[in-house]
Amino acid sequence: MRRTLLFCLILLFAEGICNAQPDELDNLKASLPRIKDSLPYIDAINRIGMLMYERNVDSTFYYGKKAREMAWRLKYKKGEADALNNLGIFFDLKGNTQLALRYYNDAYQLYKKQKDSVNSVQTLMNIGMVYQEIGKDDKAKQWFKASLKEGSKLSKDSIMSLVIYNYLLLYPTAFGRDSMRYYLNKARNIAIRYKDERTLVAIGQLIADDRIAHGNRAEGLALLDTTIRETLKERLYYVSMDMLIDMGDQLIKTDPVKAAKYYQQGLDISEKNGYLIYNELLARKLFDLYTSAGDNVKASDYSKQLIRVHDDQQKINNESGVDYLDYALKEEQIKSLKQRSKYQNVLLILVVLACFLAVSVLLVIRHNLKRVKHLNKQIINQNSQMRETLVALEQSQNDNTRMMKIAAHDLRNPIGAITSLAGIMLDHPNRDEEERTMLEMIKEASQNSLELVSDLLQTQFKTEELTKEPVDIGEMLQYCVSLLQNKAEAKGQEIKLQTWPLSVPANREKLWRVMSNLIANAIKFSPEGGVIDIQMAPKEESVLISVKDHGIGIPPEMKDRIFDMFTDAKRTGTAGEQAFGLGLAISKQIVEAHSGSIWFESSPGDQTTFFVDLPFAS
């Protein structure tokens, strides 16, 4: 843990804390009564807490807790993040790594929200170092890499020399020799650029260790000794602890007497400055060394010193009166209560809104009930008027239909006579061309008129008036095709028919009109030489008949009006054939009277397919 704590704490602020100056600490304490602005006051006590960790780590906890409470109250996020960082250091030094991780992570999240990139990088590094302490090396490396990645985006990257240093210090074997040299040079250049003497001195230790590890032991030990002397010259005593221990560890097998001198030098500095962690560590190393050498007298002295260190630590813990675990638990309880209070407030607001909405809805319902009663009276009156109007309309429609059928019936005989006379006159061999043309026009016009009269007579029938019998649909289609074959051949068209022997209950004459109309339309709107496909497809409860042409198609704007009676959605055929707009409307009435359905699919300018679906049962 010693190496983790060493540079986890160094450079947390720009001035550094490895040689926590008594003057700075005293000056800060003296300035507190003069600071009127609360935010600078929070910054000052956060700094005091940072400087106090070497003397009494409980003071770090005290000032961190105080700063955090003030920052909470004043909503000062920077002060809160710094206080969380101090609490992370406190719990780290106390050996509670889980709480240390929690507070470091909370500090990191706040730094991220404030876009404080430098401190974000630092806390990522601290988290990685704690994971290294507890032996989770994969996670530690993951957090170090995140720190390096985020640090690479910094415009002022002074913190990066420290991040690189700690990564190399903790995981030297994770790098090849070339990579190690590259990162050492990078960290050294950053430290030189920012005149960071502490990191430069510490990097000297890494360079020395690298040389020792790669066969240059004498050169490495000389460099490490020089680095120690420079560190002590600069009075960087806390930094020197790791270096003195490193030197002792390097010499303990080859020159234990010299190793003991370095351990003893470190122990003297640690006792002078009150570094209890290093007091215990160095006393134990000297105890083990003299025990192995069989010098029981000196081993006994260091065992007594170990006991004294433990007593001093226990005394400090007892006198501090800080129950930091209780604080952490209470803090969780406070958070839980705050969350519950927030939830209850939201719930109360929702209940009030629900009550308000309920009252509003009741008022609206009451108002609407009054309106509905008034509207019901109006609707009853309107319904009565509509019934009278419908009765009058039905009577008028029946009269119109009767008159239309009478007129259509009376027109059949004279129009038929005109057609017959025109045919007889055309049979006369001595007609000149002009007369023949006029007679043909008269005959064609009269035939069209007869078709129109027949269509008019087919309208306005009732379903119950239909007389149904079993009708073989395949046979009917063959009959329709044979009747219309001449029209198709006149335009050079081919009719392809696929049938099945299937019967449905139907009115033979009316269903024949539907099929004849669909086939005639296919002939009418197909080009010269076109193909007309007629198919039957038996289904589970019905038969599907399709009539497909490859003609002019139906434009989209006509699709919704194609089945209307007397529709304007009509066009002349490909050979100039006239259309009355009644055939499809009558066909739709007939099909629906048989409980069937009729529809079409069309691609304008390409093809049209009409479908008729007729049930097997009435």
Task: Describe, in plain words, how this protein is organized in 3D.
The chain has 618 residues and is of the alpha+beta class. Among the domains are: 1-144, Serine Threonine Protein Phosphatase 5, Tetratricopeptide repeat (Alpha Horseshoe), CATH 1.25.40; 343-460, Helix Hairpins; 465-615, Heat Shock Protein 90, CATH 3.30.565.10. The protein is built from 21 helices and 7 strands. It has helices spanning 2-9, 22-31, 38-51, 57-74, 77-93, 97-113, 117-133, 137-151, 159-170, 177-193, 197-213, 217-233, 237-251, 256-273, 276-293, 296-320, 324-427, 433-458, 473-490, 508-524, 583-593, and strands at 469-472, 494-498, 503-506, 531-538, 542-549, 597-603, 607-615. Strand 4 and strand 5 form a beta hairpin. It is elongated, with a radius of gyration of 52 Å.
Specify the helix fraction band.
Answer: 55-70%
pLDDT under 50 segments (min length 5)? 1-21
Strand content: 5-15%
Rg: 52 Å
Question: Which structural class is indicated by helix and strand composition?
Answer: alpha+beta
Number of helices: 21
The number of strands is: 7
> Order of strands across the widest beta sheet?
2-4-5-7-6
SSE run: HHHHHHHHHHHHHHHHHHEHEEHEEHEE
CATH class of the domain at 465-615: Alpha Beta
Distance between the termini: 93 Å
CATH architectural label of the domain at 465-615: 2-Layer Sandwich
Sheet with most strands: 5 strands, mixed
Shape: elongated
Mean pLDDT metric: 81
CATH superfamily caption of the domain at 465-615? Histidine kinase-like ATPase, C-terminal domain
CATH topology type of the domain at 465-615: Heat Shock Protein 90
